[in-house]
Every structure is written in structure tokens, then in C-alpha cells.
Amino acid sequence: MQQLSRYSPALVAIDRLWLARQGENREVLMTTDIRICFVGDSFVNGTGDEEAAQSVPYIDIFSSLVSEDSYKLEVMSNDGSHPGSSSYVKMAQIISSSPNWRFYAP
User: Fold this and answer.
1) 85-96 and 69-77 helices cross at what angle (nearest 10)?
2) Of the residues 1, 3, 5, 31, which has the maximum number of CB atoms within 10 A of its CB?
């Protein structure tokens, strides 16, 4: 698996530029996992539009977690891509509180 250099200033600058062009002013959380850097815009923006169009259940957990300092600290303290156990508890709470996690028969 290819990895990005941790906390790459160039990649942070690119992400900030992209967000500015989208009219957004929010903090950039970098990751060392290159797979996370290349995901669909709807996933990054937390809208789930592409998923909804394909009838794929979608739960935005990223937006809720990325604004929490404890989550960011856990990610940075671990491998740069994965948080610690308390953030996984938070993820489970977000998912279980959404009706979208349930499987429905067609």
C-alpha cells in the first residue's frame, strides 16, 4: 500500500486550495493513507448524493468526527489514518442512531 508522507505541507496546501475554490473554509485533516485522499466528492463533502442516486445507504460519520479535537489527536497518535477506541465508540453511536444502517428487503 502506498503511503503519503505524514503531514505533507504540499498536500495540505492543495486541500486548502480545493476547499477555498468550493467556497469552504474548514480545517484540513491529513492522512498517511493514500486511499483516503482519493474518494468521491460527495463522500468528502458529506452529502451522499452519489450513494443516494444508486440507492446505497449512506451515513456521514466523517463530518461529525473531523470537527472533534479528540478524534484528530487519536488519528495523529496512531498511524495517521485510524483513531483510537473512543472514536470507534463515537462512530458506532452515529451509525446506530441513523435509520440508514439497517438492511431492507427489496
Assistant:
1) 130
2) 31
- Tell me if residue 90 falls in helix, strand or coil: helix
Report whether 100 contacts 64 (CB < 8 A): no
Note whether residue 104 is domain-resident: no
**All cell numbers assigned to 102:** 439497517
CA 21 to chain CA centroid, Å, is 19
* Structural domain contains residue 74: yes
Residuewise pLDDT in 10s, the chain (106 residues): 333 444 455 555 666 666 666 666 555 554 444 444 444 445 555 555 665 666 666 677 777 887 788 888 888 888 777 888 898 898 888 888 887 776 655 4
Specify the residue for cell string 431492507: 104
Looking at the whole model, is its pTM more than 0.85?
no
Domain assignment present for 1: no
Beta partners for residue 3, in sequence order: 33
